[in-house]
Specification:
heterodimer; A: alpha/beta; Rossmann fold; 3 domains; six-stranded mixed sheet; globular; B: 353 residues; mainly alpha; 13 helices
Chain lengths: 502, 353
């Protein structure tokens, strides 16, 4: 019989209320290899990894490491058994030093006291080995995102992991840094470490990985040697159906200029620098860029949540100040924030409260709020947006992500804005609900509203936008016209522009 | 043109940052200068020693509270815990020659016994707080609000259980009084009358020892490092394998030891303990921490900061009475300074957008 693989996960099933996140998924990782795990957002990649780390308990399925069953009850236990993960969202204690973050939970000790000397020495050893040029004593919050990511990888390596999971490790790295990461990965591979590499970047996957497993809707689709795959083949397997069906037909027609932005620059870093563009009525303008390219900062500066340093915003030919959100709302702006849970919803409030909170002025008569009017508007929006909810008195926290997003979109629509600023409007939403959100955005454009939409999913920008503005390191790298979006090389063009000022 | 406005902004930001970082020291420096100008005797060594002596017990308490603030919590029960522990200490150190002792049959105990008893009582209440925060997931504010009442009730029952009823526990063993209120005499003539024959109170040494010990705990033990990690980013700490519950309990137990020691000393310092002993000490301890830069948002603070914060607060207290400021006005000034301190502290960490 053949030697068992380093890691085998078979028939993994995980159900959440209303969703089957994993539907008999599987993954087989060989020793000393890089295994790419691919799939669209919501395909079940991270759920599968969370089962491995004991963050979730699978409903069915087996996990074995070197042939022995492996069932961890916490990330700590997984780490102690040589299974490490670098999360996409860096979980670090920003006010503490680099080395303390690396050795947190297992500080090197001498006579029962934490030995700073030993910690420094061990950190230097790992950094030297990986060629990382970071001062171990510096506060981690002062490093750039890419440096912090490197530190996180060094931390995983310092656990002497046999299995290392990298979740989107290159999302905020420059070309040079990606090469550096690949050197590290090759070194680890030679050492016999099995690496699971989660990424959306086809080119990287084909270069670095030995095998590729593709997942879709929680199911295992295929596992193939990377040498036998092409980008097109991967996309076909990932999407599993015609690309055009993922987006509703575009019916909006851009008309006259609605907003003109001239040399917009933020006051405090990180800030957008010298961004100029115009937005037409009925137009959907996409904003693309890498993590840290300050797309969110651009929207925040437009909306007045972040201080404007220089530049001008003209709405219908008249300059607007937008010094704070209230002023912006009065000027006809609306902004859907990126972090729905942190800055969008009021979790322990009702649908009605969440829907009407930005529009209280409209319901106030002689200082008293009209509950009847609020209820009427909420019901109207819930109906027209097809929000799936038991009622308007339900806490928003119990709705699914897609339905929460609809409520927040509804909140802004009630203020009857002219310009909608949408930051990652479909993040963390399942495929079906995404289609509905796209439809809503296109309908709004159809009504003549101007829409600026930031997204990290290139396919959705290409799918529903009329033009795409590409940000690079805080500056505007270029704007793709409708013709350029239709062309074959659109993804390459965007990637090239996104790296322009790095 | 653009470059020059940018550089001007850069320097003005730098100036702003400098003032934010050192504003408190600047204000207090000015205060001291003003006090000295009004009455130069303020600088006499006896005054300085008095300030440090008065800062000592509050300082030891603040060292304990600081840990909880670093954990993004607080402790409102310090004062009442001191009341309970000090009452127990007092009842165990009463002079054997005193007729109405609380425990008439007790021999003169070695002083380590009341010290350990005081620590045990303080630790008990701290464990209630720690348990509430770590296991019941309550906010420290709420738990300690409850504990504070429990501790007060216990103190009242204990003190009123004396044969003579609810009277202050007093008349202590002379050894105990000497241990707390004595000092190191330095005799000699340095030529300046105000600096001759100095007595350095033992209390200052106790405070210094506690501060050094706590510096080690905060900077050289896993408990200290984990405390900062939990206060700064609980999620990250948990993912890195730090046992959040165990470390929170650890911080509370260390605080218990400090409260116990401080209560023992406080009993000796005031030499009479009643049900109101310790009242409002929590506020002094918390204000000391805050003035010293321990942030209520958690994960930030240093031991030297706490020590300086407590001393500066005492300087304000002392100089206001030294100058004979109306006592009611003193409260108002103290209150304003605390608000000012916190508002400056918050500015330091606000992310500008």
């Amino acid at each position: 019989m053949a030697e068992p693989a380093l890691l085998e996960m078979h028939d993994m099933v995980k159900r959440f209320p209303g969703v089957v996140a994993l539907d008999h998924a599987q993954l087989v990782l060989q020793k000393g290899s890089v295994h790419a795990l691919m799939g669209e957002n919501g395909a079940g990649k991270s759920t599968l990894m969370k089962c491995l780390f004991g963050i979730y308990v699978e409903d069915e399925g087996t996990i074995t490491i070197d042939g022995a069953p492996a069932r961890y009850s916490s990330p700590k236990q997984a780490l102690d058994n040589g299974v490490a993960m670098v999360h996409q969202e860096l979980n670090q204690v920003l006010r503490r030093s680099v080395m303390e973050n690396i050795w947190l939970g297992r500080f090197p000790k001498k006579f029962g006291l934490v030995s700073t000397g030993k910690m420094l020495e061990e950190t230097r050893k790992v950094f030297d080995e990986l060629n990382i040029d970071v001062n171990p004593r510096v506060q981690i919050g002062k490093l750039s995102v890419s440096q912090r990511q490197m530190v996180e990888i060094a931390k995983a390596v310092s656990y002497n992991a046999r299995i290392l999971v990298l979740d989107e490790p290159t999302s905020s790295l420059t070309g040079e840094e990606v090469e550096h990461l690949f050197t590290i990965i090759n070194k680890l591979r030679e050492r016999g470490v099995g690496i699971i590499y989660i990424s959306h970047k086809m080119e990287e996957i084909l270069r670095i990985s030995d095998e590729v497993t593709i997942m879709r809707d929680g199911q295992w689709v295929a596992t193939r040697p990377a040498s036998e795959l092409t980008t097109d083949e991967i996309i076909r397997l990932m999407v599993g159906r015609d690309l055009s069906n993922r987006f509703p037909p575009k019916t909006n027609v851009p008309a006259e200029t609605l907003m003109e932005v001239k040399h917009l620059t933020g006051r405090y870093p990180p800030a957008c620098k010298d961004v100029s563009f115009e937005l037409r009525c009925g137009e959907i303008l996409g904003v693309a860029g890498l993590v840290g390219s300050r797309r969110t900062e651009l929207l925040e500066t437009l909306f007045g949540v972040a201080h404007r340093g220089e530049g001008e915003i003209d709405l219908s030919g008249k300059p607007v100040a937008n010094r704070n959100s209230r002023e912006s709302i009065n000027n006809g702006f609306a902004m859907l924030t990126e972090e729905r849970r942190a800055t969008g919803i009021f979790p322990l409030q009702t649908i009605t409260f969440n829907m009407t909170i930005a529009n209280m002025k409209a319901y106030s008569h002689f200082g008293f709020l009209s509950g009847k009017e609020m209820e009427r508007d909420t019901r109207r929006m819930v109906g027209s947006m097809r929000v799936k909810t038991p009622g308007t008195k339900t806490y928003i926290k119990s709705l699914s992500g897609g339905n929460q997003q609809k409520v927040i979109l509804g909140r802004w629509l009630l203020t009857e804005p002219d310009v909608l600023l949408l930051d990652e409007p479909t993040r963390g939403i399942d495929v079906g609900a995404k289609y509905e959100i796209y439809q809503m955005i296109i309908d709004l454009a159809d009504q003549g509203k101007g829409i600026v939409m930031v997204s990290s999913e290139m396919s959705e920008l290409i799918g529903i936008c009329d033009r795409i503005l590409v940000m690079s390191n805080g500056r505007m790298a270029g704007v793709l016209t409708h013709e350029e979006i239709e062309s074959e090389q659109v993804q390459e063009t965007i990637m090239r522009l996104a790296a322009k000022y790095i | 043109m653009e470059a020059s406005t940018a550089s001007k902004r850069f320097t003005s930001d730098k100036v702003r940052e400098f003032f934010l970082t050192y504003a408190l020291y600047i204000i207090l420096g000015v205060m001291i200068v003003v006090v000295v100008c009004i009455n130069p005797k303020f600088l006499y060594i006896t005054n300085i020693m008095k300030i440090l002596q008065q800062a000592s017990t509050r300082g030891i308490l603040a060292l304990g509270v600081a840990g909880m603030i670093v954990l993004a919590g607080t402790d409102l029960s310090v004062g009442r815990i001191v009341g309970a522990s000090a009452a127990v200490t007092a009842s165990l150190v009463q002079s054997t020659s005193y007729a109405s002792r609380m425990w008439p049959d007790l021999p003169q105990l070695p002083l380590i016994v009341p010290l350990l008893a005081s620590i045990a009582v303080a630790m008990f209440f701290c464990c209630i707080n720690g348990f509430g925060v770590a296991f019941l997931k309550l906010h420290a504010f709420i738990v300690s609000l409850g504990t504070q009442l429990i501790a007060y009730g216990v103190t009242c029952i204990y003190i009123s259980s004396q044969a003579g009823g609810a009277q202050a526990i007093s008349t202590f063993d002379q050894n105990f009084i000497n241990l707390v209120n004595g000092g190191v005499q330095i005799t000699g003539d340095v030529g300046i009358p105000a600096f001759n024959n100095i007595t350095i109170p033992y209390l200052i040494f106790y405070f210094a020892i506690a501060a050094v010990a706590m510096w080690f705990v905060w900077n050289k033990t896993a408990l200290g490092k984990n405390m900062f990690a939990i206060g700064g980013n609980t999620e990250a700490a948990a993912v890195s394998g730090v046992s959040v519950k165990k470390n929170i309990m650890g911080v509370y137990i260390v605080a218990g030891v400090l409260y116990g020691v401080a209560s023992f000393l406080e009993a000796g310092r005031i030499q009479s303990v009643n049900t109101q002993t310790g009242l409002n000490y929590d506020l002094d301890a918390i204000s000391g921490c805050v003035i010293g830069g321990v942030s209520f948002s958690g994960g930030v603070g240093t031991i030297p900061g706490v020590v300086i914060g407590v001393i500066l607060l005492q300087v304000i207290n002392y100089s206001l009475s030294f100058l004979g400021v109306n006592p009611y006005l003193q409260y108002i000034i103290k209150g304003l300074i605390i608000i000012l301190a916190v508002s400056i502290d918050v500015r330091k960490y606000l992310a500008k957008k």
